[in-house]
Specification:
This protein is mostly helical. The chain has 13 helices and no strands. 35% of the residues are buried.
Length: 363
Amino acid sequence: MAAISQIRDKELRPVRWWLMAVAAMIVAMVMVGGATRLTESGLSIVEWKPVTGALPPLTDAHWHEAFEAYKKIPQYRELNHGMSLAEFKTIFWWEWSHRLLGRTIGMVFLLPFLFFLWRGMVPSQLKKPLWVIFALGGLQGFVGWWMVASGLTHRVEVSQYRLAVHLMLALIIFAAVVWVIRRMSAGATGLASMRLRVTSWVLLGLTFLQIYFGALVAGLRAGRVFNTWPDIDGAFIPSASRLFFEDPWWRNMFDNALTVQFQHRMTAYLLFAVAIWHALDTLLARAERSVVNGALWLVAAIAVQAVLGILTLLHQVPIDLALAHQAVAIVVLTLALLQVERMKGRDVSTASRPLDLAIGKAV
């Protein structure tokens, strides 16, 4: 059985490397997207041309045409009126690079995928998930334009609602790719109690929720106000009249900068506390080494993320700290996802084909 597993693992190696490259490119895409947002570059291209838009302006006339189109939207009139063509090119290149990277990811995913399917190298139970990931990638392109379109008529920035959807979809795609990679790997798995498994799922859910709230903070530029810690608006818990003055009350959770930042902070505290509890629980339960190590690494990453978040807030969102904060959020998400998967205890590399199972039983 071991020899069969090794053969199957070798067959899957090119597929795993391909998916790891896709995952790395998605991380790069998220980081470039963050830089695009922080430099206020996301509205510099006012048209969605999935095919012809792959080429940037190639002549001086084309550059002036793109600049004139940008001058017609509210962001230019209210925030960037009088900017030079050279300044416009700076924000244009950020947005163009972001879109080009998205197109490139689509091609890097699809072409090798078709090749691996043709060669019969993709396990049958992973074909459907991979097609779903590809479809989500196509949807992400549409969502990206839907987000940009929200800032072209009546706003000087994109909708924080649509920004959050755009980021969350990117991270869902990333998480799906990582999950498939893990399913194909022969890495350490560990048996664990139902309580530990449930807690790991809670941590993963809280991580997604925290990132969602962070996207709302970014969309509202809420990190540029209330730049104190641990107090916010003069207290650890602001007054209800300040937190819930919008009507209906639930709009405060999405539109009120104070409430959005406050819920981002509180969720961070909760996430950190649950992570510590989960790590202690793995130690007290004498869980397998891989489970304990996964829990401890998760606590460490969340601690680093919390420190970066505080520093980003206190310094009013400098781009270097903001991007570091975003990058470590992806690390936390990855570790939380791996902790959930680690306790499922199944390995596609040794059970990817009925023939493998049949031979394994015979052996």
